[in-house]
Amino acid sequence: MAKKATQAKSKATIHDFDLIIEPVITEKSMALIQEQNKVTLRVKGNANKAEVKKAFEAIFGVKAINVNIVNVHSKETTRGSRYKGSISGYKKAVVTIAEGEAIDLFKE
């Protein structure tokens, strides 16, 4: 007797929703979604690849193949010529979704 492999879909917890903050919406990230089926997300500073993959699969209900994490460093800026400011750094994750699956980030 052969057992049929079933994928147990876990329910999203509060921790999962706290881990993934928001999607990153730029021209480059939109091109990655359309061409390579990769979604760029802003995540919590203490997140790791395994946690992001589990949370992404639980929230969106799709299979994540790969997760890459990047630390975006803070930058110093000037506001006009007189005022100095800074743009805070953050951590982002690029999640590759399985072929044939898609998510809708802009639900109405």
Descriptive account of the structure:
By secondary structure, the protein is of the alpha+beta class. The chain has a single domain, classed as Alpha-Beta Plaits. The protein is 26% helix and 34% strand. The chain has helices spanning 14-19, 27-36, 49-60, and strands spanning 20-23, 38-43, 64-72, 75-79, 83-87, 90-97. Strands 1-2-6-3 form a four-stranded antiparallel sheet. β4 and β5 (83-87) form a beta hairpin. The longest helix is centred in the middle third of the chain and has 12 residues, at 49-60. It starts with 13 loop residues before the first helix and ends in an 11-residue tail after the last strand. The mean pLDDT is 89.
